[in-house]
Amino acid sequence: MATWSNLNLQDSASPLMEQLAFFHDHTLLIIIMITMLVGYLMATLFSNKFTNRLLLEGQTIEIIWTILPAITLVFIALPSLRLLYLLDEISDPSITMKSIGHQWYWSYEYSDFFNVEFDSYMTPYHEMPKNGFRLLDVDNRIVLPMLSQIRILVTATDVLHSWTVPSLGVKIDATPGRLNQTSFFMNRPGLFYGQCSEICGANHSFMPITIESIPSNMFINWIKNMNN
Ligand code: CUA
């Protein structure tokens, strides 16, 4: 999760978020190169010797500074499109979970199992345990198995919400009257935090998401207890 003064992306917990981080670094490097080149050119303008004061056109340089940025954009667009389509891939999931946005909490349904559904509210500060995280912990966590492909179906009952978990690279709108789907794969155990990221009303900031990623045998135990 994000901690104090972390301005970078969070550590990824899924292969797709890892790819997103690589793409971010790749694009940032291109931006830095462009900024340095343009900055250098602008700095040189201060000591201009007016060599080309009477120059009116230059076909060669025009072609160069049209083609080069176009090629640069292709180097960003192709990996971006690759990721865009990979993110939409559902890849034969072994579990489906439904998350429903409400003002202002999430509720979850495990429709693969008999009657497992619960609400998930933010833990208020005065009920927070010493090791808890303010504004991020919830009373009922989502429990899901690691190392399995998980599909989530997302919808809302009242207004737009957005089910967003940065370390998994998931951000999907919860829309009343629509059922959106996406999927992810958690490659390590742990607690992964997220927040609603669609401005949904007064308590928008107070409907966090907590995922507990655990080994699949422990997940089976958990779901057994939920059914009792
Ligand atoms: Cu729900 Cu913002």
Automatic annotation (TrEMBL):
| GO biological process, any | ATP synthesis coupled electron transport
Q: Where is it localised?
A: Mitochondrion inner membrane
Extract one GO molecular function annotation from the record: copper ion binding
The segment(s) forming the Cytochrome oxidase subunit II copper A binding domain are 92-225
Q: What membrane topology does the annotation report for this chain?
A: Multi-pass membrane protein
> Which InterPro entries does the protein's record reference?
CcO_II, CcO_II-like_C, CcO_II_C, Copper_CuA, Cupredoxin, Cyt_c_oxidase_su2, Cyt_c_oxidase_su2_TM_dom, Cyt_c_oxidase_su2_TM_sf
Hydrolase as a keyword of this entry, yes or no, is no
Where exactly are the transmembrane stretches of this chain? Answer: 21-43, 63-87
- Principal location class: mitochondrion
Q: What does the entry's cofactor note say about binding and number?
A: Binds a copper A center.
- Which Pfam families does the UniProt entry name for this protein? COX2, COX2_TM
Q: Which residues form the Cytochrome oxidase subunit II transmembrane region profile domain?
A: 1-91
Q: Which cofactor does it need?
A: Cu cation
* Gene Ontology, cellular component aspect: mitochondrial inner membrane
Question: What is catalysed by this protein?
Answer: 4 Fe(II)-[cytochrome c] + O2 + 8 H(+)(in) = 4 Fe(III)-[cytochrome c] + 2 H2O + 4 H(+)(out)
Recorded family membership: Belongs to the cytochrome c oxidase subunit 2 family.
What's its job? Component of the cytochrome c oxidase, the last enzyme in the mitochondrial electron transport chain which drives oxidative phosphorylation. The respiratory chain contains 3 multisubunit complexes succinate dehydrogenase (complex II, CII), ubiquinol-cytochrome c oxidoreductase (cytochrome b-c1 complex, complex III, CIII) and cytochrome c oxidase (complex IV, CIV), that cooperate to transfer electrons derived from NADH and succinate to molecular oxygen, creating an electrochemical gradient over the inner membrane that drives transmembrane transport and the ATP synthase.
Q: Name the NCBIfam families on file.
A: CoxB
Quaternary structure, per UniProt, is: Component of the cytochrome c oxidase (complex IV, CIV), a multisubunit enzyme composed of a catalytic core of 3 subunits and several supernumerary subunits. The complex exists as a monomer or a dimer and forms supercomplexes (SCs) in the inner mitochondrial membrane with ubiquinol-cytochrome c oxidoreductase (cytochrome b-c1 complex, complex III, CIII).
Q: What is this protein called?
A: Cytochrome c oxidase subunit 2
> What is the source species?
Archichauliodes neoguttiferus
Question: What lineage is on file?
Answer: Eukaryota, Metazoa, Ecdysozoa, Arthropoda, Hexapoda
Name the gene that codes for it.
Answer: cox2
